[in-house]
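During the reporting period, we have paired protein sequences with backbone structure tokens. One record among many follows, to show the layout:
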Amino acid sequence: MALSRRELFRFGAAGSAAVLAGTAAAGSARFPAPRRLGDPFSLGVASGDPAPDGVVLWTRLAPDPLAPDGLGGMPLHPVTVDYEVADDEYFRRVVARGSAVATRALGHSVHPEVHGLTPDRWYFYRFRAGSAVSPVGRTRTAPAPGQALARLRFAFASCQSWSSGYYTAYEHMSREDLDLVVHLGDYIYERAWLRGRAGVTMGPHFRDEAVDLPGYRLRYALYKSEQPLRAAHAAFPWLVTMDDHEVDNNWAGDAPGIGLDIWRVPALFRGRRAAAFQAMYEHQPLRLAQSPSAAGIRLHRRFRFGDLAEITMLDTRQYRTPQACGGAVVSGCAERFSPDRTILGAAQRDWLIDGLTHSPARWQVLGNQVGMSQNDSDPGPWVAVSTDAWDGYVADRNAVLGAAAARGAGNLVVITGDRHENQAADLRRDYSDPGSPVVAAEFTGTSITSNGDGVDLSDKGRGLLAANPDVKFFNAQRGYVRVELDHRLWRNDFRVVPYVRYPGAPIRTRASYIVQDGIPGVTEAWSSGDSPAPPSAPDAVSRADAEPGPR
């Protein structure tokens, strides 16, 4: 049974939108689950976007998550999904209950927004559909605005190509003592760029590139079928944004990415992008305000954590102008300095600068997708940079860093993904001026799996360190970054695993860097030596068969 137009009109425009977006129940009506539903919670549970009084919860009903049609094995009709939030993991003290309607229009996903909770505390939650009960998730509300907060701990991650390796890093992350996780994009990849899982072959529905809603849904279902990723989602609330591979490699605004195919036709690309946005919403803990519309999906937003920190999530894909000089690593590209080029769009840039200069928080944190610091690949006299990163949008970089410095934005730290490398770097107000002051710090986190096992210090890394004195640290292994901050100090731990081609890798802290309150820039606190080698496997798939992939 589908929701009729008469039923939707009864709830009004706002209420209908909430029902269709899976955030609310359709009045007193209940829609029963099929009797033989199997395990509808195969993709796990998640929470996100914490506020002082609540969070958004997420699950998607999918008893057959890899069904080729992308519908997860669900029938046509809607299903009522109940949820509970409790003080304890045994649900003896339930503090909130409610229902949401899972409809086929959004892949039977639900996004109930829970309010009325106490600031700065842990809660437990679960879902029920018919007789099936979900795994228990844990979440945490944000501190109240201005509340004195002694400490915040979080991890940030990015770039988790399923075909490139095992999600061992998430096994370790889920056991960390954290308050939240920040994901900086490339949560899925539209195609398998690298075959890096020893002994694993790709199913027939994952060999081709995702270009439509069923294809993108299948990518998310494949990734979320991994227990380590589900465990990390269930352990902490997440803040998420996107980079390019959620849609198409190196796409920019209305322009498709790299490649010569039919999807370069503008109308077809817009349809493809809309399908990718919808699939992202269906599979992430995002609020109703982030549900896609004809105008796109609003992913730039702010989160305040007491008087200690404000995290601003950016969107460097939807509003940018196409990459200068072809988007590759180039030298002598005068176009990248054009004042008309933007990576944020004027509206988001003004919103960002206004927020940075009016926030009372001790630490200003930018959740950023592509590298902001200059990454010169030429150790000689030329400057060779990627124009897909902020190096290709110099006017926007100078505007943001210049305004933050001029208006006293406090301690500005940029956290970045995309590069598949760990880097610690000083950010200068204007890289064209050798005497320009350091105004902020950037910590780039490596990939979870993308680019395979990696190495500690590659030839590329040696070249970058030689050509960029502001880059203080480089490492190209897989892992994530753990952050702890208080009112005096930001501590950044680069957590790495020695291999991802096989499961079971150990984890360690490769290096730690700090930022001191009132002193912009990074300082090394601790660094270890080389990592152990991955295990040998004579029958493993040859790396010569791997297809190299982009960031």
